Each structure stands twice: as structure tokens, then as C-alpha cells.
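Students often ask why inverse folding is considered easier than folding. One informal answer: many sequences map to the same fold, so there is more than one right answer. In these notes we will look at a single instance of the problem. The structure comes first.
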């Protein structure tokens, strides 16, 4: 019993130390974002602000300079959602359809196609840059929002296909057979029978695909529209800007603002994420 208690104490102590290690940078950034520039320069990085101010957050949102443009990160924040929302919807819907077909309308080539999709999803992003550039140029979509939506949709489909296919494999085949006997067709079965059973795995797919798109830097920097690049490329330009005085508090506030959507998404849907991911893993 004593050994068990000692082991538990060591385990919780190690977890506490690990949590403290990872949360300390977040604490430093959070308090710095509420300090004036003068206080950031003169005070300890771990000390609380003497005078709390939200001015760095306001400036980061509306008037901070990224290169020669001083509109803050607001336009890039909006541009990111203009890309992420349609790309997430398309990737999840097409992935669900693919998973449905591979799980319930199986053919001899289904496993081969599924394997090719998985292999494609693990190819390093850098190898896609030249083929993507050529493809977007031919489609007249290079440097446009539509081009980035297309890229993220295509790159998200293998992941969502894998998730939905593993989830749907465990659903009873009798559901599909009964619907067919009632006269339902392919799409009616999908939208009225299969999809209503999928909220958990839909939430998992939305979180993973949205996080990947929102945190993307390579595609955003390479194929983003000038003046409307997604948030990560804009924040990097803001932090690396060599014009004027380095306002570290404003830069940190911009980073904190850029992290809020994914953080809030995980906080709100975290328990559904774990449940859906577990179901997909166990039932696959």
C-alpha cells in the first residue's frame, strides 16, 4: 500500500512538474500582453503588470504593422476563416462520403484506394509545392482564396476518410440493408441514416481539419493572396517586421489572439473530441 501511494505521489508530482513546465511560457506571454512596452523592457518576465492595459491587444487587432500595412491582424483573421470554413465543410463532407462508400459499399479496389489515400496523407508537404503551384496556375487560382480552399480540402480528405471509414465499419450492415429494402437510395441512406449517427466523429474531423488549416504556415505563405494571407503568415510578418520600434507586448498580444480560436475549440468540444476519437480507434 505504501509503495502504491509513493508511486502515485511520484506520478502526480511528475505530471505537475510537466504541466508547470509547459504552462510557464503561456503565463509569461499572457502577463506580458497586458503590460506597457516600458514595463516589458524594465520588469521581470514573470511579474504581474503594475498597471493592467488592453492597449496592446487593441493595437494588435486593429493597427499593428505587418510589413508596410498597419491594419492589425483583423483582416488576416477574417481571411483565415474565409478559407477554413468552406475547406472544413468540404473535407468533412467528402471524407464522410468516402468513408461511407469504403465501409458499406465495398468493392475489390476499396482497400487499395484507402491505402493510397493514407500514403498520400503522409507525404511531406514540401514535395507538393511544385505540383500544386503548376496546378493552381493552370486553374488560374494561384494566389487566391479559392486556391487555398482547394488545397486544404484535398489535403484534408485522406484524414477525414480514414476517420469516417474506421467509424462506419463498426455500424451494423443491417442498417443499410433495411434502408435499401425500404427503397432508399445511396444518398438518402447516407444523409438520413448514416450521417445522423456520426456527430462524435464529425466533431473529431472538424477539430483536426480546422486546426491544421488554421495553423498552416507553408501553404499560407506560398499560395496566399497578397494582403489577405492567413493568420499564421500575418503574425510571422508582424513579429519579424523590421520597421519602427519593436513592440514586444503588441507582438505577444497578436500571438495570443491568433491562438484563441483553436484553444476555444478544444475547450468547448474537447470531451466530444476524446469520445469520438476513442470510438473511431476502437471500432475501426
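Output (designed amino acids):
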Amino acid at each position: 500500500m505504501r509503495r502504491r501511494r509513493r508511486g502515485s505521489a511520484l506520478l502526480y508530482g511528475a505530471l505537475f512538474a510537466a504541466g508547470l513546465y509547459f504552462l510557464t511560457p503561456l503565463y509569461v506571454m499572457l502577463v506580458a500582453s497586458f503590460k506597457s512596452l516600458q514595463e516589458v523592457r524594465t520588469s521581470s518576465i514573470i511579474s504581474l503588470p503594475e498597471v493592467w492595459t488592453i492597449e496592446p491587444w487593441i493595437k494588435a487587432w486593429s493597427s499593428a504593422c505587418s510589413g508596410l500595412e498597419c491594419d492589425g491582424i483583423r483582416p488576416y483573421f477574417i481571411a483565415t476563416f474565409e478559407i477554413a470554413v468552406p475547406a472544413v465543410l468540404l473535407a468533412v463532407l467528402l471524407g464522410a462520403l468516402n468513408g461511407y462508400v469504403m465501409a458499406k459499399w465495398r468493392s475489390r479496389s476499396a482497400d487499395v484506394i484507402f491505402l493510397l489515400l493514407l500514403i498520400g496523407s503522409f507525404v511531406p508537404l514540401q514535395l507538393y509545392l511544385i505540383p500544386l503551384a503548376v496546378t493552381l496556375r493552370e486553374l488560374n487560382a494561384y494566389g487566391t482564396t479559392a486556391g487555398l480552399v482547394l488545397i486544404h480540402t484535398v489535403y484534408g480528405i485522406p484524414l477525414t476518410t480514414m476517420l469516417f471509414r474506421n467509424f462506419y465499419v463498426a455500424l451494423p450492415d443491417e442498417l443499410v440493408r433495411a434502408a435499401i429494402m425500404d427503397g432508399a437510395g445511396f444518398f438518402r441512406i447516407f444523409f438520413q441514416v448514416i450521417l445522423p449517427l456520426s456527430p462524435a466523429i464529425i466533431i473529431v474531423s472538424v477539430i483536426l481539419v480546422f486546426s491544421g488549416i488554421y495553423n498552416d504556415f507553408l501553404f499560407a505563405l506560398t499560395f496566399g493572396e497578397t494582403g489577405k494571407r492567413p493568420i499564421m503568415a500575418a503574425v510571422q510578418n508582424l513579429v519579424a517586421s523590421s520597421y519602427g520600434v519593436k513592440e514586444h507586448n503588441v507582438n505577444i498580444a497578436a500571438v495570443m489572439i491568433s491562438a484563441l480560436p483553436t484553444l476555444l475549440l478544444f475547450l468547448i468540444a474537447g470531451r466530444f473530441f476524446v469520445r469520438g476519437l476513442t470510438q473511431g480507434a476502437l471500432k475501426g
